[in-house]
Predict the structure.
Amino acid sequence: MIRHLVYILPFFSFGLSIKGQVGENPGAIIVLSEEGSYDVRDADGNLLTKNLKPGSVLRDGLIIKTGPKSEISVLFSNGLTASILSNSSLRISSFKQNSFDPGDQKLGELNSEPSLSSTDLSLEFGDLVVQTKKLNRRSSFNITSPIGTAGIRGTEFQLSQSVNGQCKLDVATSTVSFTNLQGVTSTVSNGQGLDIAPAGEMSERKINVQARINIIIKNTANAKIAAQITLNIIKEAVSKAAKLLVINIPKPNDNEEEEDSEDEEKDLRNAFMDSHFLNKRTVLGVETVRLSHASSVSYSYDADSKEIIIHFYDHQGNLIDSVRISVFNFDLQLLLETLKPWQAEHDKIIDALALQVFMEQLGLGYSYDEGINDALQSAIGFARIFLSEINLNYSLPSANTWKASDLVYEFTQNPYAYEFGLLLVKFGALGEANFNSDNQSISSLGTQIIELLGGRKKLSNLDYLNKISSGKIKPGDVINGQPVNGSILGTRSFSVDPSNNLDDLSLEIDRLTAIVGSEVTFENNAELDVSTLDSTGENQVVAFAAAKDLVIKGNLTFKNSKNSKQAISIGAADDVHFRSKSITDYFDNEFAQKYLNEIDDPIFLGSNPIKPAFSPSPLKITNEGKDMGIGSSDIMELVDVDVSTNGHLAIGSLSELKILSTRFDESVEFSENNIETVLQLNELSAGTSQESGKIYMYAHDRMAVNGLGFGGNVREIYMDANTIDLKNIKFPGSSEVMLKSKLGYPTFGHENRKIGHVNFIKNVYHGADFVNQGFFHSDQRTSRKSLGSSPAIKIRSNN
């Protein structure tokens, strides 16, 4: 578990000044999880207990203090969750809530609090991580302190303060307004932070990486448990809280014996532990309620038997079962089946893969001095940040948006960065290509990438990672004994002319931002303004990266309100899909069978036109910035898809690239006289009237195109695949075209098509000129038609 030690000055005010019409009924505070040493005291500081269990119900008037390597997470009955991290003290001064009708809902189904509430907390010292439901405008939420006041309406944040008076506020979602004692207000928006000096001076900054890690991990864990709790259970907890009493025990007189005071404290603790007997006079504010659908897992290692022990706990933290698995005798399916009864599918896979990674390392003789449970939980928690599913529409998720420099820092701070990298390899997040040779397998390629980055020894070295990430690494360079070339990523190797300017191949790490997830989905008509991520005004690259699949459901626009020279990268370690994951969702079965027929392939190789019974609506992807790249590890299929960008465009697949248009009459031969027909082709557009663009198309295996045109501002077109099949294509008359296949020679007509060649199947034009055998010189590799001093079309080998 990631721990962060910060001390905070007493009585920090954090909340709203607007009071709602909330009655005097106490709300309930339910313990979600607890770990390590802590104690609960009454308002005067008298010790009540050092032992809470998940499901314990508290009411206001108590103080919770945590020790080193300890924390407690609680759920307020208005939906607010809070994690009290190590070395912290939180005073629950007052928590009132109006009654509500529970219905049959679960807490996770609510977007806002179930009823009006007023909350007053005092964070005396330590770290507090909070996630709230949307508060009613008449509700209030305060955390008091002499430093100032902050306003909250529904957000995720962490509050920290050191003993020297320095206060830190980090906001992951929504906004928080902070007003110091001088009356100066500063608004902190999502992804931002604020430092407040003891005298009240405030300085804005980016959100602290460690704080964001805490916010994501703690709130995700709390939300997972809380979401399954029904409002009926919440109502029951509120009812119990209303019956609890917060009793202030008078301090002993000076003439009382010290042992009498100790006996009184013992009695007090005993009364607390017996608090489930509600008729007792000494009930002090704690009761237990059963949480539904919540469970936990921990891990230990038996060094003598070389076994991992998985411990399963119920909702109240009671051990249910333990399972032993030998580090030398296991497989992934065994781990999945072991975890199956206890976890959701997605979390189960991550946990099982993490177990596999650590068991393999233990089998190799590597030991974990901190304990295997801490190691596993840390790697799993970090992995879930990157491997969550995200849906994009009009805003960017701050939890999944990372600067590359922040990632570099986090890797150096994570003692299990190497294991985390291996976990990503097994998950498939570092590529999933279909290679035949063993050394090109997914595991081998991913391991090569990790070793290229420095392996176990150097992944935790900040200076080293900053050096390799900020330097101008070029193809052909050697890092850690490995050449930087195409083969390590499953692409063909290539060489670069030393005389070429290689500045475009370098990228400052602070200019790269990634939106990462397990599966990334762009909703139909999504509009995302990524220029808002560029606070420096410099050029930037924004990457949308899916560890598995990426789906673009419909039209997608990347806005550019700041007019920056942004570059967009869209990529998936598995598949990039358009509209849906299945082509049969938008084609009739007969046409889909022909499209998927890899033996005869009549759609791309046949001479007779084939039309589907119905076609999908055109899908348009637009980047209002500069360059754009779309990449997939598996087959990429663009059916009736148009792509436009103001810079250069790159589209690539480590398997096959297939482009198909169903929007034109395939039986009509192209010519300069039927340009209206050509306009119904798929169109790839790059550049502007002021600055022309280039288009790069790559497939490791085969590129099959039927129905493609290009924008008028495209100056150069590159196609590279082992086999290229071209049908119904209109290259612009002003564009230079480079076609690379394995053997580097053309064929003409579907009957002459060959593997390893550039095959002009049917209807390929360069401007108004039909591309046939007579279009080329006798070498069959250079066109007779020229653009200035350069051939219009060149065919070369990619070996």
The mean pLDDT is 79. The longest strand covers residues 89-97.
